């Protein structure tokens, strides 16, 4: 195999591949990227047995071929090469070596047999549809903060993507929760997604997917089966196993009877929470909200560190309420608001609180209160 490729295109492709590779693994081939050159393209494939990423880039292929080389080492080399450099990769199968050449720099890397590289078994996808990158980005970006990190409740370690029916009709919905907070985000149901099975997309896959979704106008092809999910752009294909478990009935924890309504400037609220939380004890990070007519007082009382208080002007016309929250949870939810105002709906100091973005019902957040 011998190819010449522009440094920027190579860096992007190898960067995507090496981020999937597990740094510590007992199977040497899993640290490698599979490079396949044919025609006028070269593809880079990497896997950790749960996720597989395939990235294609245009290249000048002098001699077609296939090899595998350390993904992290190749990425580090390419990253340190000068911008605009033309990189030549030459494989010597008999010596088990790959030569990387750019300008006056030459590197020789050990390779492993391509036959040892594990391919993810292809799946019969039940449903395939297309969605704009901006829509998928919103669905996953606004829900991923609520993914649980508790390994014992493994079925909460991802985003539940499924179809549902809202007040506005059928939707594509993403939900994540860790038992303390919940995010439920809706988007219009794409054509072809009607019979899609609900799948739990793992946390690592959500992180890798984010790198595919930067161009707003790009259409992403999504394929779903009971065991796998695939996201494809014209050049990159990300395939992942889904979490084998049943996502809990999240509708039971979304309160319907919360009538006390508070409206506040989302950016100002987030900044105020951040300021008063500075002195709260790291363990609980509790912030108390004292709400009266058109007035909100945020306060923290940490006996060992001191106290803090800040007042905000809000729109609130119900009876006085005092309620406490974990500051980190409040900040994460407030930072999701794209619109100017955040709307909080309370019931009592012991019940879950609902938050949404102004009058937009397509994004709903729930946060459990704390005793303060």
From TrEMBL:
Identification of the protein by name: Beta sliding clamp
Job description of the protein: Confers DNA tethering and processivity to DNA polymerases and other proteins. Acts as a clamp, forming a ring around DNA (a reaction catalyzed by the clamp-loading complex) which diffuses in an ATP-independent manner freely and bidirectionally along dsDNA. Initially characterized for its ability to contact the catalytic subunit of DNA polymerase III (Pol III), a complex, multichain enzyme responsible for most of the replicative synthesis in bacteria; Pol III exhibits 3'-5' exonuclease proofreading activity.
InterPro entries: DNA_clamp_sf, DNA_polIII_beta, DNA_polIII_beta_C, DNA_polIII_beta_cen, DNA_polIII_beta_N
PANTHER family per UniProt: BETA SLIDING CLAMP (PTHR30478:SF0), DNA POLYMERASE III SUBUNIT BETA (PTHR30478)
Protein keywords: Cytoplasm, DNA replication, DNA-binding, DNA-directed DNA polymerase, Nucleotidyltransferase, Transferase
Subunit relationships: Forms a ring-shaped head-to-tail homodimer around DNA.
Source species of the chain: Haematobacter massiliensis
Family to which this protein belongs: Belongs to the beta sliding clamp family.
GO biological process, one term: DNA strand elongation involved in DNA replication
Keyword Oxidoreductase: no
């Amino acid at each position: 195999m011998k190819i010449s490729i522009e440094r920027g295109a190579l860096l992007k492709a190898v960067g995507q591949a090496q981020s999937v590779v597990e740094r510590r693994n007992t199977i040497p081939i899993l640290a490698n990227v599979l490079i396949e050159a044919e025609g006028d393209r070269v593809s880079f494939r990497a896997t950790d047995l749960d996720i597989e990423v395939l990235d294609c880039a245009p290249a000048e292929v002098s001699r077609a071929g296939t090899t595998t080389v350390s993904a992290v080492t190749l990425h580090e080399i390419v990253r340190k090469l000068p911008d605009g450099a033309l990189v030549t990769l030459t494989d010597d199968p008999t010596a088990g070596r790959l030569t990387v050449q750019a300008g006056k720099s030459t590197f020789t890397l050990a390779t492993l047999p391509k036959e040892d590289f594990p391919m993810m078994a292809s799946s019969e996808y039940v449903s395939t549809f297309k969605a704009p990158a901006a829509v998928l980005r919103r669905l996953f970006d606004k829900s991923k903060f609520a993914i649980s990190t508790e390994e014992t409740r493994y079925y909460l370690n991802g985003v539940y993507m499924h179809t549902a029916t809202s007040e506005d009709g059928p939707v594509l919905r993403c939900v994540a929760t860790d038992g303390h907070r919940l995010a439920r985000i809706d988007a219009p149901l794409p054509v072809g997604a009607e019979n899609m099975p609900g799948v739990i997309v793992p946390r690592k896959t959500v992180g890798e997917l984010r790198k595919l979704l930067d161009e707003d106008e790009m259409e992403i092809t999504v394929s779903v089966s009971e065991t796998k999910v695939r996201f494809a752009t014209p050049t990159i294909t990300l395939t992942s196993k889904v979490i084998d478990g049943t996502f809990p009935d999240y509708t039971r924890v979304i309160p319907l009877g919360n009538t006390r309504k508070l409206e506040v400037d989302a950016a100002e609220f987030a900044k105020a929470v951040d300021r008063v939380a500075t002195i709260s004890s790291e363990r609980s990070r509790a912030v108390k909200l004292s709400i009266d007519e058109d007035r909100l007082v945020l306060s923290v009382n940490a006996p060992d560190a001191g106290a803090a208080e800040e007042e905000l002007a809000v729109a609130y016309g119900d009876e006085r309420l005092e309620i406490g929250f974990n500051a980190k949870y409040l900040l994460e939810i407030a930072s999701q608001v794209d619109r100017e105002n955040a709307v909080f709906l309370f019931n009592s100091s012991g019940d879950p609180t609902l938050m949404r973005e102004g009058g937009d019902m397509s994004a709903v957040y729930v946060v459990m209160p704390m005793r303060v």
